[in-house]
UniProtKB/TrEMBL annotation:
It comes from Streptomyces auratus AGR0001. The keyword DNA-binding applies. Residues 36-55 bind DNA. Pfam families: TetR_N. This is TetR family transcriptional regulator.
Amino acid sequence: MSHSLGVRQAQKQKTRQALLDAALGLLEEQSLSSLGLREVTRVVGIAPTAFYRHFRDMGELGVALVEEALGSLHVMVRAILAEQDGAEERIDRTVAVVEQHVRRYPLHIRFVARERHGGVRAVRQAIAGELDRFAEEVAAALKSQPVSDGWCDDDVRMLAELYVDRLVTTAAALLDAEADGVEGAAEQVVRVARRQLRLISIGRRHWREDH
């Protein structure tokens, strides 16, 4: 009996992932608010009613895509910021991680960039929630660094939000550069991102004395 349950559970998970992948592919050219579940189930090859075994509605599917898009990025960036290397080394590795993430998951990044201010409220809230959690994690990592000694929590959080905003903007810019296909465009985005983050880092070192 347990073996049969395990097989069914594995098949259910496989179908759920197939729905996510199908939706993501269809969303390359349209917004979530315009995508119907029948389109998605047609690609997967299941009946429309079977969709509800996996998601309540398209909004819940969109929330799952948000978690796929941003979840692993949190872990990687937080690990880099927790390291005790110099600021420039951390910046270079952070930008490199974002660049790799965009190249590995372009459809996910495009989805987040489009739906961040899109028409599906649950997805907008999920993206905002993920970015808020991301900022909390970055703030915790920044707080542990010696340069943050004496900083109040509000200022550390403000700094974390600056970093997160730059990383999100960089990801979207890299996606556009890759889509445009202009030689050297992606490299220019990376150079600008590094300079912007270094500028923030310089300001950070002088914040307490000027605040």
